[in-house]
Design goal:
Shape: globular
Number of strands: 15
CATH topology of the largest domain: Aminopeptidase
CATH class of the largest domain: Alpha Beta
Helix content: 25-40%
Strand content: 15-25%
Largest sheet: 6 strands, mixed
CATH architecture of the largest domain: 3-Layer(aba) Sandwich
Structural class: alpha+beta
Number of helices: 10
CATH superfamily of the largest domain: Zn peptidases
Radius of gyration: 23 Å
Order of helices and strands: HHHEEEEEHEHEEEHEEEHEHHEEH
Strand order of the largest sheet: 1-2-6-3-7-14
């Protein structure tokens, strides 16, 4: 690595170090426009000559928009993270650089990309537009949807940061998340039997049948069905009066992914007990990102390598549904996202920062060429 490249990586790591230090793992209760992660990003962007506006949507949903000049491409990155799990060995809020990797909560998903964007803004003078949001990990979509309603028509494309090994991704699965609350009748377990008095028994019965729907030839085949949380009850000698199940699935990308998801929901609801009270809640239903063929020449004109489809969901789908074609592009590997001792490779940070800079340069050159042609 040359001296200039080493300096570039160190500058990116400087931004990442500050972003990781800011705990944004519980935005609903802690993120306001004055949160340290937003203050830091806003400060860097203002110093880089950007006009920064912050819109508080409430409930931890905050949009930070930075503009410098006019460009047709919007960069987007979320600054919230998941909560650190108890298996971390390192301090999740202190960036640790070892053996070509930068460890820290959100380093891969996706503060590494935010650091790259800050570096591009800081080290260039070309027009740039960056939207930082704070509610992606909660699966709300409030930030992006509100932004698109108010300002989405101002841009032609969006670059959405998620871990793609610094390659452009144009298609991914949808994502649907739900919660079911089962209700039973509390009582002493000396009277327990196979009836539906126990809410936990009902939840387990439903889960057992739901998993069968993910088998080959069934309604949820290939949809990455997962029961993520089951909780309830008070003690082993008390019949459970309530139990909650949270689950989700990821339909394959297709123009009718929403219809497919609705069919799956109908099948899952059909497994609920007919004579026991339950409450079904739609937590989040996100569309798939379906390849827009018109985006291929755009990405190629930026000099960005296209990557394979991915199985994880991103807010690029919301941009597309909102009328703004999008590509997913960020450093790192999804295998590190949400993991203990999460990390991003230093060479991935450099590759991604260079890719973002290519886009900014290409957009600026295109605007200058269009202006020259118009003048002639």
């Amino acid at each position: 690595m040359s001296e200039a490249e080493a300096k570039q990586v160190e500058q990116i790591l400087g931004h990442l170090r500050e972003l990781v230090r800011c705990d944004s793992s519980d935005p609903e209760t802690s993120v306001t426009p004055d949160h340290p992660v937003l203050r830091y990003a806003a400060g860097v962007l203002k110093e880089a000559g950007c006009e920064v506006t912050i819109h508080d949507l409430g409930g931890g949903c905050v949009n930070l928009l930075a503009l410098r000049g006019h460009t047709t491409t919007l960069f987007n990155c979320h600054l919230d993270t998941v909560k650190p799990n108890p298996n971390w060995v390192r301090d999740p809020f202190t960036l640790s650089v070892e053996d070509g990797r930068a460890y820290g909560l959100g380093a891969c998903d996706i503060k590494g990309a935010a650091a790259c964007m800050l570096w591009v803004a800081q080290s260039s003078t070309e027009p740039i537009a960056i939207l930082f949001t704070t509610d992606e990990e909660a699966g709300k979509g409030v930030c992006v949807e509100a932004f698109l309603r108010e300002q989405g028509q101002k841009w032609s494309h969006a670059v959405v940061a998620e871990p793609t090994r610094a390659k452009g991704v144009l298609q991914h699965r949808g994502f649907a998340s739900f919660e079911i609350e089962f209700t039973g009748s509390a009582g002493h377990t000396s009277g327990a039997d196979a009836s539906n008095e126990s809410a936990i028994h009902n939840a387990i019965d439903w889960g057992h049948e739901a998993l069968k729907l993910a088998k080959p030839g069934k309604a949820l085949e290939g949809s990455r069905f997962n029961i993520g949380i089951i909780n309830g009850g008070t003690a082993s000698n008390v019949i459970a009066a309530s139990a909650k199940v949270r689950f989700g699935f990821r339909p394959l990308p297709s123009p009718n992914a929403i219809e497919v998801a609705q069919k799956c929901v109908h099948e899952l609801q059909g497994l609920l007990p007919k004579d026991g009270p339950v409450q079904w809640t739609d937590r989040f239903v996100g569309p798939a990102l379906v390849r827009d063929e018109q985006m291929i020449p755009v990405v190629e004109s930026w000099g960005i390598e296209l990557g394979p489809d991915v199985d994880f969901w991103t807010e690029a789908a919301l941009f597309c549904v909102g009328g703004l074609p999008a590509v997913v592009l960020g450093p790192g590997d999804i295998a590190q996202a949400h993991a203990s001792d999460e990390f991003v490779e230093l060479d991935q940070l450099k590759l991604c920062a260079d890719a973002y800079h290519k886009i900014v340069k290409a957009e600026s050159n295109a605007a200058l060429s269009a202006g020259g042609a118009h003048a002639s």
